[in-house]
Amino acid sequence: MVVKRKMTRKFLEDAFAGESMAHMRYLIFAEQAEKEGFPKVAKLFRAIAYAEFVHAKNHFMALGNLGKTPENLQAGIKGETFEVEEMYPVYKNSAEFQGEKDAVRTTHYALEAEKIHAELYKKAKEKAESGEDIKIERVYICPVCGYTVVDDVPDYCPICGTPGEKFVVFE
Q1: Each residue of 6-34: pLDDT tens digit?
Q2: Cβ(121)–Cβ(76) under 8 Å?
Q3: How do residues 105-134 score in pLDDT, each as one tens digit?
Q4: Three-state secondary structure call for residue 141
Q5: Strand partners for 148
Q6: Cβ proximity of 148 and 141 under 8 Å
């Protein structure tokens, strides 16, 4: 299933972007509701965030954007490399020029983490192309800046200084 008409394709791409943003926005809202002592509201936000994910996935599939794992890893490499080489340097420079300290911080965090993501995808792609899975036990993500490390969590995040025990673990 691949949408072929240009206008419909553009509309579905816009819908995918909107649904993707809604998904993330609702997860962020859920986290805040949880912190404020509203666990049922958090549950509602998470449930509807999942529905938005379903919508985004359906649009993504109709656009023909899902390939085999090596192709998907290449798409990840391309996206992360664009963010590292073009997007975040420009965004960060603009934020610095305009004196927007929070934007400077968040774009710096993302830029540094995206460099790692591109390298991790490259290594995974090499293995996947030869039919092998990667050999990792855990992935640790800094909850403040997104710094990503495989198997051994650092004492402190090298990007933002967050203690390693606060990292989110994916096993």
Answers
A1: 999 999 999 999 999 999 999 999 999 99
A2: yes
A3: 999 999 999 999 999 999 999 999 999 999
A4: strand
A5: 141
A6: yes
